[in-house]
C-alpha cells in the first residue's frame, strides 16, 4: 500500500557559486527541487512507500527530474508529454545585507497545462495520505483545477489529506491566493501554515496559538501546524495544543527546510506517533536539512532520532 502521494511541479535549480551574482556567473550547480517532491523525498527517508504525481516533458531534462526522485526513494507517477518544458529557478545566494534572491523561469512548463484525466490518478486509490501545497494552484488555471479535483478525489476515496499554505509572492498576490485556497481547505485534514502566510493570505493577524485555533475552527481542520521561524512551531489537534522549539543548526542551505519539516511530520504521523513526537521529529528533520546543499532532506531515521534524543546537541560527537 502507498503511504503518501504528493502532487506538484518539480524544477531544476541553477545556483551560481557562492559570492557570484547572476550577472557575472560562468557556471551553475544543478539540482532538482519542488515543494511537494521535497516532502516526498523527506518522507521516503523514513522508509515509507511514497509516490509523486506530476507532469513532465519526455526529454533528457524531464528524465533527469524523474531519475533523481527515484534515486532517493520516491516513485514518480508522471504524465509524460511531448509539449512544454521543465521549469527552472535560479538561486543567487548572499549574506547580510543583500540576502538571497530567487528568480523563477517556469512559464509554459509542461506542468502548467496539467489535466487530471491524463494523470495516473489511480495511484491515489488505497493511499494513506495525499499532500500538496499552495504553490501548485497558483501556477495556472489548469493546476488550480487539478489541485481541487485531486483533493476531492482523495476525500471521496477515504484518503487523508495534507496541505501546506506555502504562499509565494512571486507567483500571485494575497487576494488571488485567498480566493483560490480558501475553498480547498474544506477538503484538508492536516494544514501547515507559516505564521506570516496565515496573516498575509487568510487575514489572521494573531499569535501562532490563536492562529492555530482559528484555522482549525474556521475551516474545520483536524490538525493545524503553524510554523514561526526561529520561535518554533505550534500544533493544534483535537482541541489540544502542542509546541516545539527549533533545534540549533549550522545553515549551509536553508532552501527546502519547510518541506523537510512537513515530510518529517507526515512520515512520523504515518508511523503512529502523536503530534508532540511528530513535531520533534519534524523539527529535527528540518534542522538536518539546513546542513545539506540542495532542496532535499537526505537524512536517515537514525540521524533524526539522534537529534531528538540529544536535544540538538552536536550528534557527531
From TrEMBL:
Ranges for domain Carbohydrate kinase PfkB: 1-296
Keywords annotated in UniProt: Kinase, Transferase
Any one Pfam family match given in the protein's UniProt record, by short name: PfkB
Keyword Zinc found: no
Matches recorded under CDD domains: KdgK
GO MF entries: kinase activity
Protein name (record): Sugar kinase
Organism this protein belongs to: Halapricum hydrolyticum
Organism placement in taxonomy: Archaea, Methanobacteriati, Methanobacteriota, Stenosarchaea group, Halobacteria
Amino acid at each position: 500500500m502507498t503511504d503518501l502521494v504528493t502532487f506538484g511541479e518539480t524544477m531544476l535549480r541553477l545556483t551560481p557559486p557562492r559570492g557570484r551574482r547572476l550577472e557575472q556567473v560562468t557556471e551553475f550547480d544543478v539540482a532538482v527541487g519542488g515543494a511537494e517532491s521535497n516532502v516526498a523525498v523527506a518522507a521516503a527517508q523514513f522508509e515509507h512507500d511514497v509516490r509523486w504525481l506530476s507532469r513532465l516533458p519526455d526529454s533528457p531534462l524531464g528524465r533527469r527530474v524523474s531519475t533523481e526522485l527515484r534515486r532517493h526513494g520516491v516513485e514518480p507517477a508522471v504524465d509524460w508529454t511531448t509539449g512544454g518544458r521543465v521549469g527552472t529557478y535560479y538561486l543567487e545566494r548572499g549574506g547580510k545585507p543583500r540576502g538571497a534572491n530567487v528568480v523563477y523561469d517556469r512559464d509554459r512548463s509542461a506542468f502548467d497545462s496539467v489535466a487530471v484525466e491524463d494523470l495516473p490518478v489511480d495511484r491515489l486509490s488505497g493511499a494513506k495520505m495525499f499532500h500538496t501545497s499552495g504553490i501548485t494552484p497558483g501556477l495556472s488555471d489548469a493546476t488550480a483545477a487539478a489541485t481541487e479535483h485531486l483533493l476531492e478525489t482523495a476525500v471521496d476515496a477515504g484518503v487523508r489529506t495534507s496541505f501546506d499554505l506555502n504562499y509565494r509572492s512571486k507567483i500571485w498576490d494575497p487576494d488571488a491566493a485567498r480566493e483560490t485556497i480558501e475553498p480547498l481547505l474544506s477538503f484538508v485534514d492536516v494544514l501547515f501554515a507559516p505564521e506570516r502566510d496565515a496573516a498575509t493570505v487568510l487575514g489572521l493577524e494573531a499569535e501562532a496559538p490563536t492562529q492555530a485555533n482559528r484555522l482549525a475552527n474556521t475551516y474545520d481542520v483536524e490538525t493545524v501546524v503553524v510554523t514561526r521561524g526561529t520561535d518554533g512551531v505550534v500544533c493544534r489537534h483535537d482541541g489540544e495544543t502542542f509546541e516545539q522549539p527549533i533545534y540549533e543548526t549550522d545553515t549551509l542551505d536553508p532552501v527546502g527546510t519547510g518541506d523537510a519539516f512537513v515530510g518529517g511530520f507526515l512520515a512520523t504521523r504515518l508511523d503512529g506517533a502523536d503530534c508532540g513526537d511528530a513535531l520533534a521529529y519534524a523539527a529535527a528533520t528540518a534542522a538536518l536539512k539546513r546542513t545539506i546543499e540542495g532542496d532535499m532532506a537526505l537524512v536517515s531515521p537514525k540521524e533524526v532520532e539522534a537529534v531528538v534524543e540529544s536535544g540538538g546537541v552536536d550528534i557527531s560527537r
